[in-house]
Amino acid sequence: MKGERIESDEMRKEERRGRTMEGDGERVEEAKARLITELQLLSQVCLTLMGCFWFSRHNSGVEPSEADGELSVTEKVKIYKYKEIRQATDDFNALNKIGEGGFGSVYKGHLKDGKVAAIKVLSAESRQGVKEFLTEINVISEIQHENLVKLYGCCVEGNHRILVYNYLENNSLDKTLLAGGYTRSGLQFDWSTRANICVGVAKGLAFLHEEVQPHIIHRDIKASNIILDRDLSPKISDFGLARLMPPNMTHVSTCVAGTIWSNLVDIALGGVFDAEEACRYLRIGLLCTQDSPQLRPTMSIVVKLLTEEKDIDTKKITKPGLISDFMDMKVREPVETKTEEVNRCNYTNPSSYNVSPSSRTSDNSNGYSSGASSTNAVYSLSITN
Ligand SMILES: Nc1ncnc2c1ncn2[C@@H]1O[C@H](COP(=O)(O)OP(=O)(O)OP(=O)(O)O)[C@@H](O)[C@H]1O
To answer: How far, in Å, from the CA of 356 to the mean position of ligand 1?
Structure first.
């Protein structure tokens, strides 16, 4: 009996063990199934994420390039592949070269998307790190105004640092207006076109100085940096480029910046200009170049002065700071014009110029002299080295 009980106990234990093993097996199967489901879900999530990533990269126009690691700072800028730039410029063909500046060479190029671009290949000095370069490019690309050249994007591959701008049909002021205007370029710069260019440039600068955050001081405003579109509307180029250059690069002046005014009223106008307006513009120019920066008007005030929203007649204009820096400066003999009206710009004393359209005295104590014919006068200052 005892032997039988032991036997049946053993059998029951065996049976229980069998059931436990069966249960364990079921649990393992269950766990396996759950794991598979989770893996399937995970792979779906991964695929979805990869799909989104692919989609966003292809929609933002960001191509794989050296800038890949910098996607976080390039979302607003089109990154061009070097290959595309080469194709656009026919491998930087000399025939497509439209200019050479302190920052490098500029080529006209036809991009794949059909846009015509001015492609600026930055010189070796400007080759900063990819991250710094792209950060600056992002800043520049956000700055948009009707009087600023639009940046389409850039190329940053290997040592290449290339900026891609909107190409403007009518070239820069130095190659058109200053290079003979109508006769050479076929463009006619009558007085109202010139006045419009002047106001447009002032508006572009006012925007850079006062509306862009942080403010941008161009530091290299000159005729070659004013590009004209097909309607002869001016666009300022190279703004923000100072930020891309190392401080030791001498191209951009860090103290006194700007290019002096040589002929104040162009004889090419043949005397057909609004003399009163010309004199007002001269006064505004003198206001802007006063020795003390505190006395100079802001660019938004300059726009108001140019457009006559604000009057400057009563202003005292103090001596320009730049002039004393030049070795030898003289005022050219006035050029006779056919203008009927006499407009005279008047220097009252060496430290304070009071420019008035109706009277004239002169002071030569600083080596300046001015002259005017009794009937018609075009005032022009020239710098000689
Ligand atoms: N967006 C543009 N559209 C058409 N032509 C352009 C454009 N940008 C530049 N150019 C041409 O390329 C020339 C060279 O321009 P860039 O700004 O590089 O040099 P720069 O102004 O002559 O000299 P710097 O670099 O010393 O200021 C300009 O004078 C102009 O003729």
So the answer is: 37
- Ligand 1 mutation target, pool 227, 230, 253, most atoms within 8 A of CB: 227
Q: What is the dihedral of CA 25, 30, 36, 38, to 10 degrees?
A: -140
* Separation of CA 166 and ligand 1 centre (Å): 12
| Ligand 1 residue neighbourhood (C-beta within 6 Å) | 98-99, 101-103, 106, 118, 120, 149, 165-168, 171-172, 175, 220, 224-225, 227, 237-238
Name which residue leads in pLDDT, 332 or 314: 314
Closest-lying ligand 1 atom to the alpha carbon of residue 175: 31
> Global pTM?
0.63
- Model confidence pLDDT, tens digit, residues 125-139: 666 678 878 888 888
Give the model confidence (pLDDT) of 192-244 as tens digits.
999 999 999 999 999 999 998 888 888 888 999 999 999 999 999 988 776 66
Query: Is the four-CA dihedral 97, 99, 104, 110 of positive or negative sign?
Result: negative
User: Which long-range contacts (C-beta less than 8 Å, at least 24 apart) are formed by 249-254?
Assistant: 249/125, 249/126, 251/102, 251/103, 251/220, 252/102, 252/219, 252/220, 253/219, 253/220, 254/219
For residues 294 and 383, what is the distance between their CA atoms, to the nearest angstrom?
26
What tens digit of pLDDT does each residue of 84-113 get?
999 999 999 999 999 988 778 999 999 999
ipTM of the complex model: 0.96
**Ligand 1 atom with the shortest distance to the CA of 165:** 1
Residue ID of nearest Cα to ligand 1 atom 22: 101
Q: Which atom of ligand 1 is nearest to the CA of 105?
A: 18
State yes or no: pLDDT of 377 exceeds 50: no
120 appears as a binding residue in the annotation: yes
What whole-number distance in Å separates Cα of residue 296 and Cα of residue 305?
12
Mutation probe of ligand 1 site: the residue of 89, 119, 171, 172 with most atoms within 8 A of C-beta: 172
180: pLDDT strictly greater than 50: yes
Active site residues: 220
CA nearest 171: which of 263, 99, 246? Answer: 99
